[in-house]
Each structure stands twice: as structure tokens, then as C-alpha cells.
Amino acid sequence: MKNYTLTRLTDQPIIRTADVQPAVEGFTVLGAFNPAATRFGDEIILLLRVAEGPTPQNETTGWLQIPVLEEQDGVPQLVIKRFREPDYDYDPRVVRLRADDGTEKVYLTSISHLRLARSRDGINFQIDPKPFLFPARADEAFGIEDARITFLEGEYWITYTAVSEHGPAVGLAKTRDFRNVERVGLVLAPPNKDVVIFPDRINDKYLMLHRPMVSEIGKPSVWLADSVDGVHWGNHRFLFGPTANAWETLKIGAGPEPILTDEGWLVCYHGADDSHAYGLGLALLDRHNPTRILARTTVPLLTPDLPWERKGFFPNVVFCNGWVPESDGSVLVYYGAADSGVGVARLIWSV
To answer: For the domain that residue 7 is a member of, what is the CATH number?
Structure first.
């Protein structure tokens, strides 16, 4: 495996939470982060994950306002549920609360959607004022998160995490122009996430990387699946999991679409240590048989070192699900930082 170096192009975020307008009146944007990325004509396109929630008011002090999609007369509508704020420390992103029927349920404290941003230089982005993809189905009731983009057979395939009370599932959408988008629907049932599709068929089959979520037994890990039609996926097999390397002992997951190099398929993935701090690493897969792992990095190429990567809605996170190859052979790597902003780095390699 070649020697890879990942270097920040700026010590400041290229997109901040404050740069994004809320999509819903009376809401506040809590985070703009974890963008998918692709080249479209002479532009670089990002699909930001934008998390927002009701703007706190004086009369809501001591209450949680939970945005969620609910069917009313058969039509999904965005509603606000109110709960007394727990008197214990809780994850700012997710909370377990007592529902109206007396049962305990897990809710997200915000609802996410995908927002399009465009740039000609890869650094300065114009952010659309309205969502590109907003939750619209029961299986997206808690939001749409962390997309990946793969250009495949003349279309841009967008995989994303669709969250509902049943857990995170995997949705698929397609577009040709980033104006009109078709929801294909769920392609993996919960609990699953971190899904990316390879940009070419291999042995006449579509391939995807995904991350089944585990509980009592096992740890989150990267799996491989294939499909003959891009919708129905099977032949699932374990690819790789956390190692004894400290930075990825807790969990890992695949990032953006694999890039085919002269050595094989280059895969960017995130790892988390026992303190839930995230870093970025690389894996190399055989070009003809991606079940063969040729190499993996033993130390992270990027860790949360800057103040805006260490402090935010969820601290100590660098998370990549979007990169764009450049004509000079380098790769622009876009990463979410602390669930609050977006940074960019350049990946280069040498023999």
C-alpha cells in the first residue's frame, strides 16, 4: 500500500452551522455537517446533513420539543412533541422518554434533511435555501442522515440513513441533474447505516458496503453485499471490523464511494475509540475480488485536533462520507466536524 497523507486545506471550517438557513419556520439549525460529495459538470456538489429543531422560547424552558413526522389522515406531517426535560445527563442527539401511551421510546432531539451546496473551486460553497431531500415517509419519521453519492450508469445514486422509531434503515434515491430526485425506497431494513455503492459493477453485479448495527454480541463492522438490480441486496458477508488499534476499537463504518486505483479499490472509513472520538483511515480492496483486503492503515490519517473539530453538537468527531478525485491525482476529502461544520483536506500518496 502506498504512503497516504491527508492534509487540511484550511484551519477553519468551509461551512458552519450559522451559514445554513432553517428549512422550517420557527426552527433553528443545530448542525450542518457530514456531506456527501461528487463532481457535477464544472461544479462540486455537496449534500449536507442539516439537523434542526424548534427554536427554544421562554415558555418552553424545562421542556424538550421533539420534531417528528406523523401520519395525519394518511398524510405525513411534521409535528412537535413536548416532554419534560430529563433530570439526568443525556446524549444531546438522542433521548429516551415516556410516550403518551405510557411506554418508553427513543427520540432524536432534532430532525435532519439533505441540503445541496455548490462550488466551482471546492472551497467556497453556495448553499441552497431549501432542502434537496426532506423526510416524507414513515420510515424517515425521525430524519434523513449522512448521505453518500455514487455516479453509476449515468445517474447519481444517493444512499442515506432513514431514521424512524424502528431504528436506522437505508434509503436510496437517484438523480441526473440534482434538481429532480426519485426516491427508490428502503434497500436495507433496520438496523443498518453507513452504506455506499461501488461506482462500477463487478462480475456483473452491483456491490455495496454497509454496517449492520449490533448490540449484545459483536461490534459495528463493514460488510459487503451484492445485487443484480441495485434494489434487492443479498450475499452479505463480513469484510472487516475494529482492530486492536486504539483509534478504532469501538466501531467503524464505510465512508464515500470507493475509488479505483492502480492498487485496487481505495476505501475511506471512520473509526471511533473507547471515548467516542472519531478518526479517518483507509483500506485497500482487490479490484476484481473486493472481499480480499490488501491493506489497512494502522493509525488514523485525520483526528479531531482543531477547536471546531473538538467542540460542537457532538464533540471530538471527524467523519467523512464525501470525497472528489482531482485531475492531478489527489482527492478532496470533505468531512463533518463535531456534528457542527464541514472541513476539507487533500489526500495525496507516494510510493
So the answer is: 2.115.10.20
**Rounded-to-integer distance, Cα 20 and Cα 10, Å:** 20
Alpha-carbon distance of 239 to 222, in angstroms, equals 6
> How many Å apart are CA 242 and CA 327, to the nearest integer?
33
DSSP assigned state of 272: E
Which pTM was predicted? 0.96
CA-CA distance, 288 to 141, in Å (whole number)?
A: 39
- Grid cell at residue 290: 473486493
Q: How far apart (Å, rounded) are the C-alpha atoms in residues 342 and 340?
A: 7
Question: In this structure, are residues 323 and 331 in contact, taking their beta carbons and an 8 Å threshold?
Answer: yes
Q: What is the pLDDT confidence band of residue 350, given thresholds at 50, 70 and 90?
A: confident
Number of domains in the chain: 1
What residue numbers bound the domain in which 218 lies? 3-350
pLDDT tens digits along 88-105: 888 888 998 877 778 888
